[in-house]
Design brief:
The chain is α/β, with parallel strands linked by helices. The protein has a single domain, classed as Decaprenyl diphosphate synthase-like (Undecaprenyl pyrophosphate synthetase). It is built from seven helices and six strands. Strands 3-4-2-1-5-6 form a six-stranded parallel β-sheet, with helices on both faces. Helix 2 runs parallel beside helix 3 and helix 3 runs parallel beside helix 4. The structure holds 3-methylbut-3-enyl trihydrogen diphosphate (2 copies) and magnesium ion.
Length: 245
């Protein structure tokens, strides 16, 4: 059992929660709506859950918004998701300083539109002015765990070729610093709504000792009570990290 209590005497929530925001399409289909309506509702859920995480004292929330595999979807659906991201970032530029929300991106931004990239740079700049202690949301955009590992390996190899590093330097800690999640602790809890029980290329390196929580609830229906249940389940887990008691 996790024993860390916060000032209220309640068990402290995990420091880092990661969520695979899945089930938007099925939510829309059940209502006879286009899939894009599900993404719109899912974006609202993200806003609510991020605020709730911040309020209950979670430090990092990492969400899977668009995977390296999601480009296989129709042009209309991809465009709708990118438009929602743009809307979110435009809002964030105006509100993150007031709300003390740091924003960070995981993923390869090179194929993302110049406009979205510019907005991501703007939010990065605002994040730099915020305190390191403030709540941080990490948005995974064109993100794949394998791609992240490959990009890190490539950069490490380039540093070796340039004489800045040597192969013997490579340790888990050094490699972690080449990942998109550099400096961020691994998530203690990974949540996947929508009934699927797979990782779908999410945080492959970082999930080594994460606790997994699955629920059949579709992401647009995911609420505070659902997050409370996931955290309560996490507190009941016995995290051994390979040790024996
Ligand atoms: C998750 O919901 C959002 C993205 C992958 C962008 P889905 O769109 O995968 O919804 P389902 O799984 O089809 O219901
Ligand atoms: C994972 O969901 C990616 C995101 C939630 C962004 P998918 O819906 O793409 O995953 P699969 O295809 O069911 O594995
Ligand atoms: Mg899905």
């Amino acid at each position: 059992m996790a024993e860390n209590k916060n000032g209220t005497g309640r068990l402290a929530p995990p420091r880092h929660i990661a969520i695979i925001m899945d089930g938007n399409g099925r939510w829309a289909k059940k209502r006879g709506l286009p899939r894009t309506a599900g993404h719109k509702e899912g974006a609202e859920t993200f806003r609510r859950i991020a605020t709730y995480c911040k309020d209950i004292g979670v430090k990092y929330l990492t969400v899977y918004a668009f995977s390296t595999e999601n480009w296989k979807r129709s042009e209309t659906e991809v465009a709708a998701i990118m438009a929602l991201l743009k809307k979110y970032l435009l809002e964030a530029v105006d509100t993150m300083e007031r709300d003390h929300i740091r924003l960070h991106f995981f993923g390869d931004m090179t194929p993302i539109s110049p406009e979205l990239r510019r907005l991501a740079r703007e939010t990065d700049e605002i994040t730099e002015h915020l305190s390191k202690d403030d709540f941080q949301a990490n948005v995974c955009l064109n993100y794949g765990g394998r791609d992240e590992i490959l990009r890190a390996a490539r950069r490490f190899a380039a540093d070796c070729a340039a004489g800045r590093r040597s192969p013997e330097d490579l340790s888990e800690a050094v490699f972690s610093d080449y990942l998109d999640s550099a400096g961020i602790p691994d998530p203690e809890l990974i949540i996947r709504p929508s009934g699927e029980q797979r990782i779908s290329n999410f945080l492959l390196w970082q999930c080594a000792y994460s606790e997994f929580y699955y629920t059949d609830t579709l992401w647009p229906d995911f609420d505070q009570a659902e997050l409370d249940r996931a955290i309560a389940a996490y507190h009941r887990r016995d995290r051994r990290f390979g040790n024996a008691k």
